[in-house]
Amino acid sequence: MSVRSGTIGPMPRNRDPLWSAVHAERAALADDLSALTPEQWKQPSLCGQWSVEEVLAHLTAAASIGPARWFASVIGARFDFDRHNARRLADQLGATPEETLARFRRVRTSTTAPLGPTAAWLGEVVVHAQDIRRPLGITTVPPSSTLTEVARFYARKDFAVPSRTTADGLRLEATDGPFTSGTGPLATGPTVALVMAMAGRAAYCDDLTGPGLATLREQLPHPSPRA
User: Fold this and answer.
1) Distance between CA atoms of 90 and 92, rounded to whole angstroms?
2) For position 212, which CATH number holds?
3) pLDDT tops 70 at residue 11
4) Which residues pair with 51 in a beta bridge?
5) Residue that is last in its domain, among 141, 163, 178
6) Are residues 26 and 113 in the same domain?
């Protein structure tokens, strides 16, 4: 596993350290995907039935739509969030994977987002980047400070994913950083694995240990979320 060094806030022109972290994670993901083969772009991700390219287009869509347009899209989809996400994803798919990547690069420093705290949109990038990287065998993970921010948010609140509900009744402890949360049977492992498990990605439970792991697996949402 390749852990990027650094702390939150690598881009000083943005005064909000969480948005700076979002921008850093987008840049790192774009760099990781710069030399993919056509077959790799079609690889299934960890996010529902979406391919690597489709997840990237979804990230571009999330960085391109503010609250008013988001509400209009949701209403137009009759509050079917899968339909809403599919439509916005299709808007950002390029004619080629290279065009899809170029569109993602253009929103690298965007602070546009639907309603919600910035920590949620940092989590969106972190989780979807790992949805892409793990099936491709890319071992890059965000800095500990970034992962800890997301883990703390996920342990406190259900937002785009039912992360707090997934972690309910468990003690979570990171083995590579300061994150701890909750009381109950222990599940422990790398911070990235705890983040991804709280986000409903069962594959990352394989990286965790402890007497609480069986309960954590049982509390994962089914089917796997696309958020």
Assistant:
1) 5
2) 3.30.1050
3) no
4) 44
5) 141
6) yes
